[in-house]
Design a protein that fits this description.
This protein is an alpha/beta fold. It contains nine helices and 16 strands. The chain has helices at residues 46-53, 55-58, 127-130, 136-147, 165-176, 190-195, 219-222, 257-268, 285-294; strands at 5-11, 20-26, 34-43, 68-69, 73-81, 92-96, 110-114, 118-120, 156-160, 180-184, 199-201, 208-212, 225-233, 247-250, 276-281, 300-304. Helix 5 (165-176) links the parallel strand 9 and strand 10. Helix 4 packs across helix 5. The chain is globular and about 65 Å long.
């Protein structure tokens, strides 16, 4: 009898969407503190496009000799649990797999992860929507942690790409920390951004107390920050050089089970946006990458293995 296998999407020689391959890898049993999840939904994020394009290979974050897996966030159902795990088989969960150098990621039929890296998905939140929370929601929450509370009298915050997955969550969470938020986005996104409780602009002038830059405008965004203000980016090591007394930081998204549980609960309650653009099969991963690269989507592509 041959060993059981499952399908996953990987990149051997990165060259954009055309380099994505579907391979079979052996099923693994979860060890102590770990669970195996039957994946129902995996989110296509800009980071995945960078992996397929070879960007992260080029800066030394991927050094896999054979291939590297795609996908960071997922939702699914626990189908096996190792010793010492407090999640029952059948529990709906969502989670985050961080790092680049791995045999396979969340574009897969199943995954073995630490139970500490997932949180239960509340009733009333479907798994495709839940899959958009672990990376995008956690990144936004951790960005706002870097920002901190708005300083008295200096709380004007500009969020670039405010209609995007991270930007929309930053917009909501920063307002709760006292920031007066303006979202920078395309004209067609005005109703959505204002619906988050923010002001809106399609063109920003300099002078902001802080800029959060999910759109990765980098130097252009830094120019909008006043002297002595703050800039928060999403790609460590690729943020613009500090100048004019501006503090420049970037978020390093990490797994945080308690924070993820809260974000999922708030998403289920409608307090945080979760937008699914389309659900496609694992075999359509390359097409989803091409569409994401074209931009202008409102919501994420979800892969259903």
């Amino acid at each position: 009898m041959s060993a059981a296998t499952f399908r996953t999407a990987v990149v051997r020689v990165p060259n954009g969407p055309d380099s994505i391959e579907i391979i079979e890898v052996p099923v693994a049993e979860p060890g102590p503190g770990r669970i195996r999840v039957a994946i129902a939904a995996a989110t296509v994020n800009p980071t995945d496009l960078g992996v397929a394009a070879g960007f992260f290979h080029g800066i030394g974050l991927v050094a896999q000799p054979e291939h590297t897996g795609l996908g960071w966030e997922f939702a699914g159902v626990v189908d096996a649990a190792g010793p010492g795990v407090d999640l029952a088989v059948g529990t709906r969960v969502a989670g985050l797999v961080v790092g680049f150098d791995r045999d396979y990621g969340t574009y897969a039929e199943q995954i073995v992860v630490a139970a500490a890296d997932v949180a239960p998905v509340p009733d009333g939140l479907d798994l495709p929507a839940a899959a958009t929370v672990p990376l995008n929601g956690s990144a936004a929450a951790q960005v706002v942690d870097l920002l901190g509370d708005a300083p008295a009298g200096a709380g004007r915050l500009l969020v670039t790409g405010a209609a995007g997955a991270v930007g929309a969550n930053v917009t909501v969470l920063a307002r709760e920390r006292g920031w007066q938020v303006t979202g920078l986005a395309r004209a067609g996104d005005e109703e959505f951004v204002r619906g988050l409780g923010a002001d809106f602009t399609t063109h920003a002038e300099p002078g902001w107390d802080a800029v959060v830059d999910p759109a990765q405008l980098n130097e252009r965004a830094l120019e909008l920050v006043r002297d002595g203000g703050a800039y928060v980016g999403l790609r460590p090591g690729l943020e613009p050089a500090a100048e004019r007394g501006i503090s420049v930081t970037s978020v390093v998204t990490v797994s945080d089970r308690a924070r993820l549980a809260d974000l999922l609960t708030r998403t289920a309650a409608g307090e945080l946006p979760a937008r699914v653009y389309a659900v496609v099969s694992l075999d359509q991963a390359a097409d989803a990458h091409r569409a994401t690269a074209r931009g202008g989507l409102r919501g994420r592509y979800i892969i259903r293995p």
